[in-house]
TrEMBL record:
The keyword Iron does not apply. Pfam families: His_Phos_2 (PF00328). Keywords: Hydrolase. This is Histidine phosphatase superfamily. One of its GO terms (molecular function) is acid phosphatase activity. The keyword Hydrolase applies. GO terms for cellular component: fungal-type cell wall.
Amino acid sequence: MSQNPVSALRGHLAAISPYSNIFKQPPPPSSGQVYGAVYLCRHGSIEVSYHDYAHFMAPFLQKLRSLQSSGRPFVTGRLSFLSSYQSWITDAHVGNVSNEGLKQSLDLGRAFRVRYKQWLIPASHYSKPELYTWTDSAMRCRSSALAFSSGILGKKGSPTGNYDDHPRRVDVRVKVLQCEDNSHQCDNLRWHKAFSVDQSRGSDKFEKLMQVTTRPIYRRLHNDWHTATPLSATDIYAMQLLHCYDAVANRPTPFEKCFEADDWPGFEYLRDVKYYYSEGYGMLQPGFYAIPWLKAAMTALSNPPSHGPQLPLRIAFTHREEILYLCCLLGMNFHKNWEPALDRVDEDRQWRAALLAPYLGHVGIESYPGRNGEKRVRFILNGDVKPAFWGITHPDSDGGYGFDLVSQWTEVQWRAWQTFSPSRITFLR
């Protein structure tokens, strides 16, 4: 059996994939100047997600405990380790940022300190620039925002709290935003809960596809499973999840012997299809809930602070759903006339959650002067300048679009939003 190194696995983790290149920097605009930037960031890597644990991992672990307590042999061969397997996961791990996630959040802050170092050069009498960072109230978002803030603040992260060699430290103020479920208010960072978005959409397709993606694994393992309780597709998927969360947390994993490299593209595709329907282009109104964010971001960028202590940089930490909503609103990684196949793994697809919304995945909007001095705007996805708007209009050589054109398009979307809700985002001002 071929081994499946963690490095190969990480390419197929979908939305539980860590951000692969923290220090990747977009090329500067040809003018060499950026007026302002607004970023929406997903939180750092967590130990295990509530949904994956509650719906798949916990039921499988309970099934194992029941079989183990019977005292009768029920596994052999590659599954023999399950006879005494005990998971490290407790309630305290569910939904919480891992140590690796905190380290990566700190590193992302350091990367942003390098990316926007032009705003940290001493100027006038302001000794310490101010940066406001917003975060959803969930602990995974708050912890990520605080670690990020330590990085952009200039701390080396050592116990002594020493600072790096940049000329100025940053006064970072982290503001926590609360959100009530079903509040129908968007002035927060948890829109999928505020508007009670149906995240079960596409679950029937997910279940159908799971039978396809787990079939080769079942054929290999079912002879090692000796009990009247059958080895199901959801059992196999749960074992894949346990293996993946081990890998993301850099923990040793006994499940590696169960899987081969060819199993993981199907795992990634299965999760991509789930997110395609619940949060992506398969939604009834893809990207709709991100309209207030784009409106607020464009308003903030229309007149970013150029004098005084406040940096022209705004950063917020949120969840996977909000990142995917914004990607869809902007038409990123859009594949015209594409629908997920449910009888095979479609490798030729643009929709990949690992590229759009990994842990610490982020969508940035930068304003900058164009070649003729006109104001432009470009979109940065995980360190890369990306084309937007479904390819209907083409970016310039810097990867950007006319600021006025994007503002006009945003206003059209905003009018559609106002027919749905009077709420707006005010905290980005």
